[in-house]
Each structure stands twice: as C-alpha cells, then as structure tokens.
Amino acid sequence: MTSKNTTLIARFPQLRQDFAASLVVFLVALPLCVGVAVASGVPAELGLVTGIVGGLVTGLMRGSSLQVSGPAAGMTVLVFEAVKEFGLPALGAIVLATGLLQVGMGLLRLGRYFRAISISVVEGMLAGIGLVLIAGQLYPALAAKAPDSGLGKIAGLPGAFLDALGDGTAVASLALCAGTVAVLPLWKHVPAKVRTLPGPLAAVGLATVAAFALDLPVAMVEVQGLLGSVQPPPLSAFGELAGVGMLGTIVAFTLIASAESLFSAAAVDRLHSGPRTEYDRELVAQGAGNTVCGLLGALPMTAVIVRSAANVQAGARTKASRVLHGVWLLLFAALLPGVLAHIPIPALAGILIYSGAKLVPVRALAVLWREHRGEALVLAVTAVSIVAVSMFEGVLIGLALAVVKTAWESSHVKLEVVDKGAGPVDAYLSGNATFLRLPKILDSLESLPQDRPVCLDLAGLHHLDHACRTALENWAERHSAAGTEPVRLTVRTAAG
Q: Biological process GO terms, please (predicted)?
C-alpha cells in the first residue's frame, strides 16, 4: 500500500465527519438565512447569498476553524434601519465598506482589542437587538405593519393584538407563529432519530405543511430568483459614503459584526479542543466575506453561534464542514429557489422571535444584579438605549457608561487627616485623584479648620489629573482665613 493511499485512508474518517456535519449546518442555516433576510426588509435570496459567501469565502480562510458565518439575527435591526434610511442599493456599499474596514483592522492586528470591550456592553447590545427583534416580528405574526421605531414597535403591540382578535387572517397567522415557536424548545424531547432534523428546519417544515393542509390565509415568502436579487451597488451609492449618517452606519456595522464574530469565536473555542482562534486572521476572514457580500449587494455577515455550535456538536473536525455547508446552500439556491415561495412568513417570524428571546440574557442579568450591579446597570442601559434611540447611539451610550464606570471604580482616593488639637493640621491624599472623585475630595478638605495652618501632602497619589490639581491649588489659595499661614502643598518629588 502506497503512502498516498495510507494518508487518504487516515483522513477519510475525518472527512466523513465533516461531510455529515455540513449537512446539519446547512439544515440549520437554511431557515435562518431566509428568516433574517425577510426580517431585514430585503429579498429572501440575499440571505442565502450571504450564507453561501460565509461558507465558500470566509469558510476557506484561516482564523477559527469550526466557526460558521452567515446572516445573523443580531444584525437584523441595524440592516432594516439602513435599508429604510438609505435604500437597498446603498446596502451593498455599506457592507463593502464594512468589510474593507474589518480587513484593515485585522491586518493592523486590532482584532485582539475587541476582547477588551465590556462583556456587559455586548450582552446589552444583543439584549436590545433581541427586544426590538421580538417586538418587530410580532407584527408579521399578526399580519400587521410594524412601526418604524423600537419604542413604537413596543408601544403599538397592545393595539395590534386587540385589532387581531376580530381578524381571521391575523388569528391564523398568529397561531402558525405560536406553533412554530412552541416546536423549537420542545424539539429536544422528540426521539433521537427524529431529532437528527434540526429544530428550526422542522418547525418551518411543520408550519409549511400546516399552512398548506389547512389552507391558511397567511403571507408567503416572495421569490425573485437568485440572479434577480443579486444587485451590485451602483456607483452613485459610493458617493453617499461621505455622509455623516452613512459613516455612522458603517461604524455600527463594523463594531457590531466584529464584536459578535470574535465573541462567538471565544464561545466556540470553549466547545472543542482543537486549534484556538487567531483573532486577527478571523477579523480579516470576516472582512473578506463582507467585502464580497457588499459587491453582490447582499446582507452583512457575522459568525453565528447557533450554526457554529451545531457544527461542533455534529462532530466537525476541520473547516471543510463549513465550506461544504456553503456548497449545499448554493445548490439549493440554484436548483430549488421555488421552494421558498411555500414558506409562511409567520413561521419565519416565529424562528426569529425565538432567536431574539435567546439574545436577552435574563438569567445572566439576575446574576449580575446580585454580584456586580454596576455591570448589570451597563447591560440594562445599553439595551434600553438601543430600544429607545437606535442601534448606533445605544452602543455608544453603553460604551461611554462602561468607561465611566471603570474610571469611577479605578479612581479610589483616600484622605487621612492628622489633627493633634493644636498647631498645624496634616492631611494626606493617597490613591488616584481624578475629576470623578473631586466633589468628595473638596467636601473633605473644606471641612478642615480655616484658622490653623494646613499641610496637604500629595506624595501618596499615584495619579493626579489636571482638573484635580487645579482644584486643589485653587482651594489652597482661598482656604486659609486672614492672618493664618497659607495652605502648604507637598507633592512627590522626581527622586521619589
């Protein structure tokens, strides 16, 4: 037996496992790709295009060997807002710019710094997305039109439910959506042989059969054809990239897609014992995929934890599984696009409502509140800001709050006063004196007697910012009463 044959035989079990895993990932990805596209307000086929690129382009590149990329529920709200504001032709230009920015950051080795983003901000971002996603998808479940803003979606739900009570179409649509949601958590209890079919595909399949068998008056996915849906961005769309609004959207796309991908990579690394993620290479791979998606006018991609976990749990060993899943998506989109027209939109809404609910970390928030209330506050404020304002502003508010919280916690300062009852009063400041602690410092200093000499020793400070230094000097100038020796400041010398 030749060494070549021996090598092939040695590799065959691994390839067989990757082949089986790729089929599982394909069956999980198919309904999610379509559902995310429909919820984002773009043709269903564009979701498949992004899934195909995630498999065939990003899947072939180095970074994280078992992580699977494609359209993500976490980007749905942002994409919907971008399409509504700038139009579908501009989406390709935004995604292309996002991809190029990600590639540049990866080449500059900035990928590792995304791990420095507060986990509370990321979880708050996902929670806010989840809440808006749930509220937004309840409207197609009720056969109603969703309001534009996040607050409007939530505020309008009671009225939408009341309107649906007397509408047979709305009741049928809601029942189909509720049935789809119910199947997803219950699917793990069915016999193991049946459970080889992934829950999302089973739920959509059962809903499709029910809609057909009962002749339910529900909306179906509109099909345009793969080639008809792929529209490269026109040159005019690139001229709008200099606008402040579009630049902000590109930054938001980049921040959220990169953070979600790299946090997903960290989670996937905990699921297997194979090679660890190379964060900078993974960021380049995600950027390359988004660049291609942008050129095709498709949805942005991120690494998706649901598909990645399914890939690992199905026994994948190499990146061949994710590449093959892209091949299966391509074959489906090319050979069976008409199947999409038989999928009920309420069923896809149910898939995304369930996905949105999983983005809201209720248990994690309860644990944070008991153990780290500051982190819980950052998470909650980020989520509420995204719902109340918008995705980009909400994330910025969360990041700013996380920075302020960290600065507050790190600026511990202690004032020790030694007063022997007569003669000078000695005061010693130690720690980190920043503007955040300035009110506390001044309140303590202003309580010192004004008719006795005061010596303020600053040698114990590790850090003294400009605001504090200026305020302390001003206090020293005005504190002493007339006829009393001025306050004496002692600072750390260069030798000390």
A: transmembrane transport
Instruction: State how far the alpha carbon of 117 is from the alpha carbons of 110, 252, 394, 403, 461, in Å.
Output: 12, 14, 15, 10, 28
Rg value, the chain, Cα: 29
Closest CA to 253 of 36, 43, 76, 64: 76
Q: How far apart are CA 93 and CA 222, in angstroms?
A: 24
111-139 pLDDT tens trace: 877 766 777 887 888 788 888 888 888 99
User: What is the residue type of 85?
Assistant: E
Low-confidence ranges of the chain (pLDDT < 70): 1-13, 115-116, 492-496
DSSP label of 108:
T
CA 414 centroid distance within chain: 39
Phi–psi pair at 413, nearest 5 degrees:
-140, 140
How many Cα atoms are found within 13 Å in the side-chain-facing hemisphere of 205?
10
Whether the Cβ atoms of residue 251 and residue 63 lie closer than 8 Å to each other: no
State phi, psi for 387 to the nearest 5 degrees. -65, -45
Indicate the DSSP class of residue 220. B
Q: Is residue 192 packed enough to be buried (19+ CB in 10 Å), middle (13-18) or exposed (0-12)?
A: exposed
Burial class (CB in 10 A: 0-12, 13-18, 19+), 271: middle
Closest CA to 354 of 178, 194, 197, 220: 178
Q: What is the DSSP string of 177-228?
A: HHHHHHHHHHGGGS-TTGGGS-HHHHHHHHHHHHHHHTT----B-----HHH
Q: How many helices (H) and strands (E) does the chain have?
A: 20, 6
Using CA atoms, how far apart are residues 460 and 436, in angstroms rounded to an integer? 18
